[in-house]
Amino acid sequence: MREVRILEIKQSVFADNDRQADLLRQDLKEKGVFLLNLMSSPGAGKTTTLMRTIEVLKNTFKIGILEADIDSDVDARTISESGAKVIQLHTGGMCHLDAEMTRQGLTGLETSDVELAILENVGNLVCPAEFDTGAVKNAMILSVPEGHDKPLKYPLMFTICDVVLINKVDVLSYFDFDMEKCKEYIHMRNPKAKIIPICAKTGEGIEEWSGWLKEEVISWREKR
Amino acid sequence: MREVRILEIKQSVFADNDRQADLLRQDLKEKGVFLLNLMSSPGAGKTTTLMRTIEVLKNTFKIGILEADIDSDVDARTISESGAKVIQLHTGGMCHLDAEMTRQGLTGLETSDVELAILENVGNLVCPAEFDTGAVKNAMILSVPEGHDKPLKYPLMFTICDVVLINKVDVLSYFDFDMEKCKEYIHMRNPKAKIIPICAKTGEGIEEWSGWLKEEVISWREKR
């Protein structure tokens, strides 16, 4: 596996994260960098989904990936195999990234040649939902083995996400997962959420998800 | 389903959580209540494992369950079917329980007739690991679909747990999960951790886990 860069990011000194997020969003708009914030529980399939997404979109956009973890560099090493630009961020034990930490990561990645930046946030359904990273869109992955009741237990995460990918649909028959109930619970939290069932392992649903993302980036670029 | 009690717990006013945890542990020792803190990612199988554990141990100990969630009462309703005493704690958005919040929960549960109290912490591999709840032992569940690399990414959780249950072994053949590597990574973080593969759905490994817990409670009661 390739060597990857590791950046130890520092905890923020800013009290007003919403203000920092708006400033970062404005900066990225001027630079033409679309930032997507990708969240999920540990092991829901963020990195595998990213590998598939890069495969589909790498000839359309110049892609850069921020891999945030408390420790290790396994995800950045995996992503580096795709050929995409990647940096591993270590959060110093922090359970989420805020806007200033995201800014540090983007600076470390060097985004002058990046059109689509994707932040793989720390695996956690609670804290990352509370901090605006400055992203244009928020996406999350819920995996089938986690169960269809998660929107009931982790309301904020489902409320703030523009799109929910329901991953690992290849193992649906092995788990007591009710897809219709899950969609109903997600829409209880967020009636506008786009829901796309996928299987990152087999590639099912990846065209639809990548198509959604591509349209979002293109319409954002046209409007800015 | 039965009606369950819901307690909205308040954020702590104490700066020194370690001191509060030691005080709670001392109080529980005097009262003869063994407290187990059970942690995992969302959807790893905490509630199903608890249902199995209650089934095996309910004639040995008087059991009380604290179900901590950000929202909903689905877990407490499930547990109430087992006949065990249970209370649903709502954390007001908090991503973990600390010692003072645990004390509020135990007071709400009323532990005068409880010998084994189990706290099902908020589903999260990061924050709960940072706060001593006052428990005698910490347990965690890692489920097969999450992947064997989690001890590399969430080091503290694996470091502080006395026992790691590897759940959902019935689906091992559908996932790229290396059991030997997983055990190796867990022991890298915590050489003393007891590791028990289980399947809460089928009951596999539940006797070994319940036996371990029973021995821990009995030896604690003899020593106190």
Following the backbone from N to C, one meets helices and strands of chain A in this order, namely: EHEHEHEHEEHHEHEH
For the sheet with most strands of chain A, the description reads:
8 strands, parallel
Terminal-residue CA separation of chain A: 38 Å
How would the global form of chain A be characterised? globular
Widest sheet: strand ordering of chain A = 1-4-3-5-2-6-7-8
Compute the number of strand runs of chain A: 8
Tell me the quaternary state: homodimer
Name the biggest interface. Answer: A-B, 34 and 34 residues
Structural class by helix and strand composition of chain A: alpha/beta
Quote the average pLDDT of chain A: 95
Tell me what portion of residues of chain A adopts beta-strand conformation: 15-25%
Instruction: Report the uncertain regions of chain A.
Output: none
Helix count of chain A, per DSSP? 8
Question: What report would you give on this structure?
Answer:
Two copies of one chain form a homodimer. The first copy, chain A, is an alpha/beta fold and 224 residues long. Chain A has helices at 17-31, 46-57, 74-80, 99-109, 150-153, 155-160, 179-189, 206-223; strands at 6-8, 34-40, 63-69, 85-90, 116-120, 137-143, 163-167, 194-197. An eight-stranded parallel sheet of chain A has the order 1-4-3-5-2-6-7-8, with helices on both faces. In chain A, strand 7, helix 7 (179-189) and strand 8 form a beta-alpha-beta unit. The longest helix of chain A is centred in the last third of the chain and has 18 residues, at 206-223. The A-B interface holds A 41-43, 69-72, 74-75, 93, 95, 122-127, 130, 143, 145-147, 149-150, 152-156, 168, 170-171, 174-175 and B 41-43, 69-72, 74-75, 93, 95, 122-127, 130, 143, 145-147, 149-150, 152-156, 168, 170-171, 174-175.
